[in-house]
Amino acid sequence: MTRKSLPRHATVASIAIVAVGIALSGCGASGSSSTNANGVTNLKMIMEPGPEADSMSKLVDAFNSGQGAKDKIHVEIDQLSRTDTFAKEAALMSTQSSDYDIYRTTSYLVAQHAPYLEPLTLNGDNYFKAPVESLQVDGKQYGIPLDPSVHLLYYRTDLIDQMLKDAPTYEKISQDVLGKKLEPKSPDQWTWDDYIASAAYFTKKYNPNSPTPYGTQLQAKNLLYNAMVWDDVLWGLGGNWLNSAGQPDLTSTAAQNAVNVYRTVYTKGLTAADSDQAEFPETEAALGSGNAAFAVQWNAGYAQLNDASKSPKTAGKIGIAPVPGGKTHVHALSLGVNKYGKHTSQAQEFIKYLDDPATMGSYVGDGGIASMPKALSTKTDPNTAALNKALSGGSFSEPALPKAFDVYTALANDLSAAWVGQGDVSSALAKANADVAKLAGK
Amino acid sequence: MTAPSSLTTRPTIEGRKGSRRRRPANRGPARWILSAPLLVFLALFVAFPIVYGVQSALTSKTLLDPTPTWVGLGNFGAVLTDAGFWHSALFTLLYTVVVTGFELAFGFGLALLFDKDFPGKKFLLSAVILPIMIAPALMGIMFRLLLNSNIGLLPGFLHSIGVDVPLLGAGTVVPMLMGLDVLQWTPFTFLLFHAALQSVPGELHEAAQLDRANYPRFVVSILIPLMVPTIFIAGFLRAIDAFRTFDTINVLTSGGPGDNTTTLSIYIYKILSAGNFGTASAAALIVALIMLPLVPVVVRRITRGAV
User: Fold this and answer.
1) Which among A8, A15, A417 has the least Cβ separation from residue B258?
2) Which of A221, A288, A403 lies at the smallest CB-CB distance from B256?
3) Taking the CB of the first residue and of the last residue of chain A, which one, N or C, has fewer CB atoms within 10 A?
4) Whose CA is closest to A144, among A371, A308, A417, A368?
5) Which helix (H) or strand (E) holds A155?
6) How far is CA A206 from CA A176, A199, A203, B195, in A?
7) Do A372 and A128 contact (CB within 8 A), yes or no?
């Protein structure tokens, strides 16, 4: 009897198939949404780790044990990475994945995410206007507004009091730096010229008696979030990304002036020279260390500045005013329903649970920030009051272009060098204008 | 007396050919079985990504329009006509040349220093190689704190001795980034040179002393020529790594101000973050093509050294 062996190619193919099988067995999505034997639907939701997820976890626990138990829906939060949540979501969305039922979205990404999200029906009257509108695309709501972010002017009350009593020095410095004599004013009345003059007053280079080395801290790093801060100056000076005809408008006089505000602050040395690499944490450091007297900062910055254990130099001495010029960018973190999810109706039920002032009141109680005036007014600390005021009037959301995220990135890329005195302002704005035209399809 | 022929005679070509002919008959399946893990690995992690990357580069696929549309070489054209790409390519090239040069010079200098005996050598050796143990992204975060003018240790120290230099200011950020790369990766070249110096025969030192050659002359005329293969490998490895630098610079500057510190990797990452998958793939392939001609040169050099 002769021994019959497998043909060589068959052997190789078998080994290859087994190896590929083993390799691919680890590639599947773990624990995707499902319905168990008791008929309870398990919804999976994406969030980034941080205070928002902590507050939402408490809300989800309450839902799972109350409304969810009744409706046989159980929500589970999957916390991805603080920095890369949206990049990971982009990969999931591009493959039309059904792994998650509820996606994290936000005002500046919602237009990009909209093709993968189901429209929502919200009770719009319960919300501040700007956050709810910032999550609409072509008139449809794709995200429920949560945790709104605005900018506020945080200043040292003890130092500003001192400045208000020293008009002669202030007038001289404003004449030297701006070429015009200005009087010291309370921060809630500042224009951008007042901001520059006050920054000069608190800069040792211009005022040897200044208690701080620099007046302010710019956030001028090449970062899309810093473009949002600069937009405050642009809008405050009457500018916009687009003009009334919907055409790019970044070569306007307002845009020139807005770049020049940053450029003056940086090149005159009214902010630390490494402001060109500064963002949120650096601004906290500048104020908290006592190196700057005031700065435009995200509303999330107040807690640390007013915490005596973290910022002993500023705790109890932080005043809050609107951004000079009276306009602040607003965006809201949000949740949307995955159009390709397996349990869209249950996901809509959970969104409906969130779309309620009482639920959002609990969210605020758990440390979250609501986009509903009624829910937000349950907290009366000065920062929440200032946020409430900014959201009620003076806040704006940039045009909801499908490529808004790219526009912010392009603005930071094209203008951040001009902000810190490098290159020519007109050329930088012309480049930004061309990029906005391309991205907006104009 | 002559040595036995079996010890002195090399196998004939016929003999080697004969042995080669026999191997496939006996070892063919085993060869495939043993190679299978590698082949599967290469297919999954090299061939598939390359084919997928080429396919992506030839199509337009974005988050807004996820259905791939054939655009031929359009994405390549978009990248190659983008001034930002060329700016980042030039910056990357400058960065690579400068940091590799310094890392080779400092690494070699340190290796010469550690070739001598001195007190505390072992402790210092551990201290010197410490930076390569740190993840580049963590290095970026550490130096973001250390160099911060408000709370940073280094600006604080410099201020205390009367020196106020903005370490991450618009005018100093490029040399500072290069300095950080040199700080982190000089230990790598040092280790390669240190290992190579251990293999230099002691007789050469003695011969040089007999010929009254001083130490600098010994280094220039004997050690450096002997170290050329190591210098080549160290330079190549560092240049490849520096060319694709991402983590530290992205954490510290995000490529700014403007695109002054944008490397090619950051350039590609920004396109990808915006959800433009086709363009990002094209940019990545162009960068791979830039690097490709170096591979045969290095392989030839390495194999020549090995034979």
Assistant:
1) A417
2) A221
3) N
4) A371
5) strand A144-156
6) 9, 10, 6, 57
7) yes
Chain B residue nearest residue A414, CA to CA: B258
For residues A227 and A408, the answer to whether their CB atoms sit within 8 Å is yes
Question: In 3D, which of A176, B73, B74, A85 has the Cα closest to residue A93?
Answer: A85
Whether B55 contacts chain A with CB within 8 A: no
**B180: contact with A, CB 8 A cutoff:** no
Using one digit for the tens of pLDDT, what is the confidence trace for A33-89? 677 777 899 999 999 998 899 999 999 999 999 999 999 999 999 998 777 788 889
Whether the ω angle into residue A208 lies within 30 degrees of 0, i.e. cis, is no
- B112-125 residue pLDDT tens: 999 988 999 989 99
Residue with tokens 């809509």, as numbered in its chain: A348
pTM above 0.80, yes or no: yes
What is the phi-psi region of residue A241: left when phi exceeds 0, alpha when psi lies from -120 to 50, beta otherwise? alpha
Do the Cβ atoms of A20 and B149 come within 8 Å?
no
The nearest CA of chain B is from the CA of A7 a distance in Å of: 9
Dist. CA A115–CA A132, nearest whole Å: 18
Mutate to test the interface with A, among B148, B149, B269 (most CBs of A within 10 A): B149
Q: Which amino acid is at A150?
A: V
B252-255: which pairs have CB atoms within 8 A and are 24 or more residues apart? B252/A277, B252/B140, B252/B143, B252/B144, B252/B168, B252/B173, B252/B177, B252/B180, B253/A221, B253/A222, B253/A277, B253/B168, B253/B173, B253/B177, B254/A221, B254/A222, B254/A223, B254/A412, B255/A222, B255/A413, B255/B88
Provide DSSP, A35-60: E-TTS-EEEEEEE-SSHHHHHHHHHH
Cβ neighbours of residue B298 under 8 Å, at least 6 residues apart?
A: B236
* Half-sphere exposure at residue A16, Cβ-oriented, CA atoms within 13 angstroms: 14
The predicted-structure confidence for A293-331, as pLDDT tens digits, reads as follows: 999 999 999 999 999 999 999 999 999 999 999 999 999
Which is more confident, A336 or A91? Answer: A336
Q: What is the DSSP string of chain B?
A: -PPPHHHHPPPPHHHHHHHHHHHHHHHHHHHHHHHHHHHHHHIIIIIHHHHHHHHHHTEE-BSSS-S-EE-TTHHHHHHHT-HHHHHHHHHHHHHHHHHHHHHHHHHHHHHHHHTS--TTHHHHHHHHHGGGGS-HHHHHHHHHHHT-TTT-HHHHHHHHTT----TTSTTTHHHHHHHHHHHHHHHHHHHHHHHHHHTS-HHHHHHHHHTT--HHHHIIIIIHHHHHHHHHHHHHHHHHHHHT--HHHHHHHTT-STTTT--HHHHHHHHHHTTBHHHHHHHHHHHHHHHTTHHHHHHHHHHHHH-
Q: What is the spatial distance between Cα B62 and Cα B67, in angstroms, rounded to a whole number?
A: 8
Q: Which amino acid is at A209?
A: N
Q: Smallest Cβ distance to B148: which of A11, A220, A282?
A: A282
Query: Is B61 within 8 Å of A94 when comparing Cβ atoms?
Result: yes
